[in-house]
Amino acid sequence: MAGLELLSDQGYRLDGRKATELRKVQARMGVFAQADGSAYIEQGNTKALAVVYGPHEVRMSRSKTLHDRAVINCQYSMATFSTAERKRRPHGDRKSTEMSLHLKQTFEAAVLTNLYPRSQIDIYVKILQSDGGNYSACVNAATLAVIDAGIPMRDYVCACTAGFVDETPLADLCHAEESGGGTSLALALLPRGGHIALLQMDARLHQDHLETLMEAAMTACKGVSKVLDQVVRQHLQEVSALTGE
Amino acid sequence: MLKSKTFVKKTRSGGIMKIVREHYLRDDIWCGSEFCTECKQDESVLQKDACIESNLCVFPHYLLPDTNVVLSQIDILEDPLIKNVIILQTVLQEVRHRSAPIYKRLKDILHDKEKHFYTFTNEHHSDLSYVVETYIEREPGESANDRNDRAIRVSTKWYSDHLKNARTEEGLRIVLLTNDRENKDKSEEAGLLTYRCEEYIKSLIANPELVDRLALTNDDKNDITSSKVLFPEHLPLSRIQSGIKSGTFLQGTFRASRDNYLEATVFVHGEGDESTEVLIQGLQNLNRAVHQDLVAVEMLPQNQWVGPSSVVLQDEGPKDDDVTGDDEEEKLKGAVVGAGPRKPTARVVGIIKRNWRPFCGMLFLSQIKEATRHLFTPADRRIPRIRIETRQASTLAGQRIMVAIDGWPKHSRYPNGHFVRSLGCAGDKETETEVLLLEHDVPHQDFSQAVLSFLPKMPWSITEEDMAVREDLRHLTVCSVDPPGCTDIDDALHCRDLPNGNQEVGVHIADVSHFIRPGNALDQEAASRGTTVYLTGRRIDMVPELLSSNLCSLRCNVERLAFSCIWEINEKAEIIKTRFAKSVINSKASLTYAEAQMRIDDTSMNDDITKSLRGLNRLAKILKRQRIEKGALTLSSPEVRFHIDSETHDPIDLQTKELKDTNSMVEEFMLLANISVAQKIYEEFSECALLRKHPAPPPSNYDILNKAAKSKNLVIHTDSAKALADSLDAARVDNFPYFNTLLRILATRCMMQAVYFCSGMDSDFHHYGLASPIYTHFTSPIRRYSDIIVHRLLAVAIGADSTYPDLMDKHKQSALCNNLNYRHKMAQYAQRASVAFHTQLFFKSRGIMNEEGFILFVRKNAIIILIPKFGLEGTVFFENKNKPSPKLVFNDEATTLTVEGHTFNMFDKVKVTISLDASNIQHQKIRMSLVEPVIPGVSVAPSEPNEPEAKKAKLDH
């Protein structure tokens, strides 16, 4: 029998979610003391760790220095144990390079870089376990880490994927759904203003369906933003309770 | 909705990969019962009064079958009597893995609102008030099957408890149906109400006939057969696979011989296009393979190779299992001696895939009066007899019935099966039509609810949005010309003068693709049907009638959506400009060919429609001439039309179809539209255009035609279509006007089949018969699916519609073409079979007739005769089993046959009597016997038409 039934007649997906439902999102901020900012996120079985250093003076080649704003340096990597088959190269391959670039573009759009001219902000993200939606997990983790580092941003950047099966948009794809063929769209959104930081889609999709798919992805991103907001508030409460203010 | 999720990991190992999946349990999955007050469901599927009268369950109950019951007893579940059934997700998923066709049938049942089948998503269900969840994890050491069985039991338990809470005094219960003994024991231990499927069905009071539809399961097989092992064991699949890999076994499709039940061939698919044929002989070597199965064979050593036997052997009838075997083999041995050259011979060692479907046929009653086991004889001679168990044998005798095979144990002479349904009395028109549809694999069941749900809602009208994107052509004088009685009008025409002296001609085709959107159930059904099948007196639609005869049909004086192809054509019928548009038209008249012809001929009529028709007719004549000059063939095949009695629907007269000018007028413009569209879509989509080609026949195909022409001292040039057309035109014999038609009939037989193909998968596009470099089908979307695809392609090409992935995928496209070609071929065969059957009916009512005919072919022991009056073809045999055969001399060169001194040439005129041979009720035949020329001992006396009974004896020579 060919393939998996991604969406049953009763409207349930492989893991029991309905089409618009997200996976369970859990996150923690400030997981490392040494870094300026750090965060850990779980989106279902996808787990990511983000660490932020900076802003500090430019440590890459001097020529990269920008005089009106800060440089954002991103590095994406996947743990060798993050996939079902052990990965040989944790970073530096084409896919990771592309992903690093995408993260850089996303955060250049969100971080108020003009506040820190001639400086550098480093964002390191690592996928500890991969189960679809790696990019979005990275973006969400990095957002929390940047907030933890106290770097001002225009808004949360929230990312989520959306797919298209049987004329129905599915939010937040898991690995089985991503690899089951069909289209997958990754969207990074600044939810308050509804600005799109990054939009990526590799497969073919008919123009007519793009709008509904985008809409589904945006709704999903807004859902994610609610969860992140809660995490930040709770973290701040905990921290302020500790410091006794 | 997020709040309620509990998070559970589900681990599945396969190979070396460890896959981790999330598994969410949720509390918003309802039980689907009308009884339930706790569940907040919008609509409940399962009824309150769920009563099937049964001895075992006198209270209302819901049935809950396990996977094996669904797989083996789907025939039962489909019965309208069985209602209020809970299908668990576990069961549904398992069925999906195990059998695609049964999964589809089950889904159809689930969609049927009348059946009250409810799918319960037990794997994701959680009930906070309940101790045990219906989702269970596999325990260490537990097999997947055991886990699923347990899941089914747990869900059944949940349902019983859940509805116990909710239920009223009526005492609703859940009945688990399982055939697995262990499962049954365990569930009874758990206090569940459990029955075996047989037990339950046999307990039904009102409908005892359901019992016959039960499939025989393993438990039952033992008592039906003797203990003697008749066949060698089949090898397990793993052994077969390693054998095929190492080359000791070969894999191929099993094809039973039509004439000899002890013989078969296996088509071994080799590398690339290579395929070889291997002979298999004898019951032991055939080893229970059934026609069309995919089998593994082992070659026999060369000294055991045999030649194909030339005798006709038919399984004579019921024998006891014990006596079979040896004597039958003997019979075959005797026949083999003296047969042709030895061929590679093999024996079947195992079955890779069964290809069983329900078979049509008749019951062969057991001699013992009270017996419940009977043999069933399929209509297709290649299928073995099937043993079934039934209590209604006496009612089924003389009826056409359908039977499915359940299995073929090694100690049984015949496969075991079960009765599926009765088609009606043998010889009845409806029954026989049903049989020929089934045997030609024509999908003809009513459209399912899922399909009908995609139909537009009535009353339907053209909306503002439709008007906005379409060209308004309602003002044009459009009319349609069709055969009388046609309700699915898919084409209409118009013609008007343009100010610059040229003429504008439009072909308007029903816009079916507007209603059938890609990918939905309606589209899939149409794609699978492929074509509308026209039988005598019945039409099997490709799309539901609402579309075919109403919304799509371009009837007169209603506004209809159309896809228009509009040309500007000059005086010499040259195309100046072509354009395509989605449009709205309002046909001014629906004419028949005869009416249109009358208008054209009647000089007193000068209205717009008539003028338009005259313009079309004039242009069509020029177009036709041009086409013939290019080398298009005009071929002929005798087509007959029945005059059907309006009350009894019996054929009362036969008549060959006659062609009028207007027929060819419409045809000409349809050809033109098809060619224009083909060019356009190929230009736009060079990789995935759906086109139609007609390959040139290989020269050897023309042998028969050449020989025939030579017998009249004529030469037919066959090197090109043009040469063929010219020499066919020139071939005339004085005092024999029908000769040319006969020759054209022969030429038709030489041709290849025209086929659909995808332009990206082939390089030869030529259409031989029409002498066109490119061709497609655009003009009949109501009755051909290919046209719908072409419509979609063209719509994309002109920017009127959007594409979808499958349309642009040449492999998918090509798979679709294969199905369409298959369906068209089968439809054609079914049509011929229907005509043949009605011809038989006609001759049955007429008794014996004497008619004149011409010899079409001469064979070694027979001549084939065509009777032009009826378009009927028949064979006169000169050999007979019970009589010494006359002296026959066959001359292969001149194709003549000399019988007792009289020589038969091709095209000789003869006189024959026609009668119906009903000796075999499943295969009735038209029998012809020679009357003139008179040859003593061979020909018969002409019969008096009005006393058929008296003369019958003489015919049985």
From TrEMBL, chain A:
A matching Pfam family: RNase_PH_C
- What GO molecular-function term can you cite, just one? RNA binding
Residues in Exoribonuclease phosphorolytic domain copies: 21-152, 155-219
- Localized where? Cytoplasm; Nucleus, Nucleolus; Nucleus, Nucleoplasm
Q: Which GO terms describe its biological process?
A: nuclear mRNA surveillance; poly(A)-dependent snoRNA 3'-end processing; rRNA catabolic process; rRNA processing; U4 snRNA 3'-end processing
The record's annotation in InterPro entries points to: ExoRNase_PH_dom1, ExoRNase_PH_dom2, ExoRNase_PH_dom2_sf, PNPase/RNase_PH_dom_sf, Ribosomal_Su5_D2-typ_SF, RNase_PH
Query: Which keywords has UniProt assigned to this entry?
Result: Acetylation, Cytoplasm, Exosome, Nucleus, RNA-binding, rRNA processing
Q: Which GO terms describe its cellular component?
A: cytoplasmic exosome (RNase complex); nuclear exosome (RNase complex); nucleolus; nucleoplasm
Subunit composition? Component of the RNA exosome core complex (Exo-9), composed of EXOSC1, EXOSC2, EXOSC3, EXOSC4, EXOSC5, EXOSC6, EXOSC7, EXOSC8 and EXOSC9; within the complex interacts with EXOSC2, EXOSC7 and EXOSC9. The catalytically inactive RNA exosome core complex (Exo-9) associates with the catalytic subunit EXOSC10/RRP6. Exo-9 may associate with DIS3 to form the nucleolar exosome complex, or DIS3L to form the cytoplasmic exosome complex.
Family note: Belongs to the RNase PH family.
Q: Which PANTHER family match?
A: EXOSOME COMPLEX COMPONENT, EXOSOME COMPLEX COMPONENT RRP41
**Which protein are we looking at?**
Exosome complex component RRP41
Q: What organism does the UniProt record list as the source?
A: Esox lucius (Northern pike)
- The record's gene field reads EXOSC4
Automatic annotation (TrEMBL), chain B:
Name of the protein in its database record = Exosome complex exonuclease RRP44
Spell out the CDD domains in the cross-references: PIN_Rrp44-like (cd09862)
Instruction: Give the keywords, sorted.
Output: Acetylation, Cytoplasm, Endonuclease, Exonuclease, Exosome, Hydrolase, Magnesium, Manganese, Nuclease, Nucleus, Phosphoprotein, RNA-binding, rRNA processing
Q: Which GO terms describe its biological process?
A: CUT catabolic process; nuclear mRNA surveillance of mRNA 3'-end processing; rRNA catabolic process; rRNA processing
Q: Name one GO molecular function term.
A: 3'-5'-RNA exonuclease activity
Keyword Cell membrane listed: no
Its needed co-factors are: Mg(2+); Mn(2+)
Domain RNB, by residue range, is 470-800
Keyword Thylakoid assigned:
no
Chief localization = cytoplasm
- So what family is this one in? Belongs to the RNR ribonuclease family.
Q: Where in the cell is it found?
A: Cytoplasm; Nucleus, Nucleolus; Nucleus, Nucleoplasm
Q: Which InterPro entries match?
A: Dis3_CSD2, NA-bd_OB-fold, PIN-like_dom_sf, PIN_dom, RNase_II/R, RNase_II/R_CS, RNR_Ribonuclease, Rrp44_CSD1
Q: Where is the PIN domain?
A: 61-185
Residues of the signal sequence?
A: none
Superkingdom of source? Eukaryota
Listed SUPFAM superfamilies:
Nucleic acid-binding proteins (SSF50249), PIN domain-like (SSF88723)
Can you name the source organism? Esox lucius (Northern pike)
Q: How does it assemble?
A: Component of the RNA exosome complex; within the complex interacts with EXOSC4, EXOSC7 and EXOSC9 of the exosome core complex (Exo-9). The catalytically inactive RNA exosome core complex (Exo-9) associates with the catalytic subunit EXOSC10/RRP6. Exo-9 may associate with DIS3 to form the nucleolar exosome complex, or DIS3L to form the cytoplasmic exosome complex. Exo-9 is formed by a hexameric base ring consisting of the heterodimers EXOSC4-EXOSC9, EXOSC5-EXOSC8 and EXOSC6-EXOSC7, and a cap ring consisting of EXOSC1, EXOSC2 and EXOSC3; DIS3 associates with the base ring of Exo-9.
Question: Which cellular components does GO assign to this protein?
Answer: cytoplasmic exosome (RNase complex); nuclear exosome (RNase complex); nucleolus; nucleoplasm
Q: What Gene3D superfamilies has UniProt attached to this entry?
A: 2.40.50.690, 2.40.50.700, 5'-nuclease, Nucleic acid-binding proteins
**Pfam families per the UniProt record, alphabetical:** OB_Dis3, PIN_4, RNB, Rrp44_CSD1, Rrp44_S1
